[in-house]
Structure formats: structure tokens, C-alpha cells
Amino acid sequence: MTQTEWTPSAPVEHARRFGGPLDSVVRRMRALRADLPARDGIAVFNRVYLTVTEEISRLIAHGGFADPRAAATLDVLFAGRYLAAVEAASAGRRPPDCWRPLFQYRRHPGVRPLQFALAGINAHIGHDLTVALVESCRVLDCEPAFLERDFDRVGDALAVLEERIREELMPGPDLFQVADPMTHLLASWSLDRARDASWSAAKVLWQLRELPSLAEEFTERLDAGVGLVTRCLLTPLTR
Fold first, then answer.
1. What's the pLDDT tens digit per position in 30-56?
2. Can you tell me whether residue 37 is helix, strand or coil?
3. DSSP secondary structure letters along 94-122
């Protein structure tokens, strides 16, 4: 992956184009919803993520966060990483490794909608949330502890997202049959563990801010590791 394909500053510039509020983020996600075929893997993730982003935008506008500016900064940078990955893939550039399997398998007939959605959540939490938190600390000139409450609030919103995904995309009661490969796949991934790992990684990355070469290496390895999990979640399944 070269610097011309993807740079750490790309999400920051993306956030600046949005101007702060989540309105532009929501509009972009709505445009993707209108443009993409419903069965497309990116469209599956985008639909459920849009619902949560709309709710976070509403909470920010109506005082649902103690510090609206901090919450908006984190959420714009966070969503901006996903949208920048979509833009990179659309332009023929290589997206981050955490997202790459989803773009590769987005039209695979053997991958179920639930897998697309969970793979997107894994990429977004495992890598994007970590880096967005550190970028937010730089923009706001604060320590990660200052944003821990907002980090948890975003994580809670994603937990609601996971619940909605399971409600909307579960194939049916037969999913819980021991012989169904989906049963084993779902048991191999945990949202709570992904959130905890993201927070720990963010604290490490923040401590490495004065060592840019190590910070870059850590971020690249995090990206690659999360990408491996994303790929596993997209294992084609057959009945």
C-alpha cells in the first residue's frame, strides 16, 4: 500500500470537507443507499450504519452528548474513514486492508447479508474507531481519556446496530442449528471484545505519537490484522 493510495491524513481532510456536523455524512450515506443494489455487500452495511449515524446526529443536535463538539469530531472522523474507503474503491485505488475483503466479496453469491454487515462492523470498530479516536485527540488537543465517554457512546450505538442487524438479517430459526456454518461463524466474533481491543489499541497508538515510524507500523499491522478477521467473516457458506 503506497502513500498515494491511502494516507493517515485522508480521514482528517474528509472530515474538514464535511465541516463538522454529521449532516453531510448522512447525505453521503443516503446517496450510497440510493445508488447501490440492495444485495451489494457495501449496501447491506451502509443501510444499517446509516440508521445509527442518523440517531447519533439527532443526539448531538439535541444535547445527547456532554460535549457536542467533541462528539461530532469523533463521529465525523469515524464515519469519514468508511466513506473514504468507499471513495478509494470507487476510484480504483486500494482501500485499507480492513475494508478490502468486503469490497472483494461484496457481490459473492455464497456470502450472506448478515456476514457483510458483521464484516463491516469489524472493519469499522477494529481499525477505524481506533484511528479516529487518536485523530480526534489531535484535533481537539486532548488525551484519549477525555473522549472515553464518547467512545463508549459510539460503541453502544454500534451494539444497537449489531442487534438491528441480527433482527433484520437473520435467515431464520434454522440459523441456530449446530450444523449450520453460520452458527460457528457468529460464535467466533464478539462486538464487546472488538470494542475493548479498539480502545486498548487507541491508547497504544496515542502513546506512539512522538514516534511516527512506530506509529505508522503499528497502524499498518492493526489494519492488516483486522483485515484478516474481516476476510474470515466473509467465508462463503453453502446450505
1. 999 999 999 999 999 999 889 888 888
2. coil
3. PPPTTTHHHHHHTT-TTS-HHHHHHHHHH
Instruction: For cell 472488538, name the residue.
Output: 194
How many Cβ atoms are within 10 Å of 95's Cβ, its own excluded? 26
Look-up of cell digits 470507487: 90
Angle at 37 between CA 50 and CA 43, to 5 degrees: 30
- Please list, in sequence order, all residues whose beta carbon lies within 8 angstroms of the beta carbon of residue 221, skipping any fewer than 6 positions away: none
CA-nearest of 126, 84, 110, 86 to 221 is 126
Taking the C-alpha atoms of residue 210 and residue 130, their distance in angstroms, rounded to an integer, is 17
| pLDDT, position 16 | 43
C-alpha separations of 132 from 15, 106, 124, 231 in Å: 10, 24, 10, 22
On the 0-12 / 13-18 / 19+ scale of CB atoms within 10 A, 66 is exposed
DSSP assignments along 147-213, one per residue: GHHHHHHHHHHHHHHHHHHHHHH---GGGGSTT-HHHHHHHT--HHHHHHHHHHHHHHHHHTTT-HH
The pTM score is 0.84
Count of C-beta atoms within a 10 Å radius of residue 233? 25
**pLDDT over threshold 60, residue 197:** yes
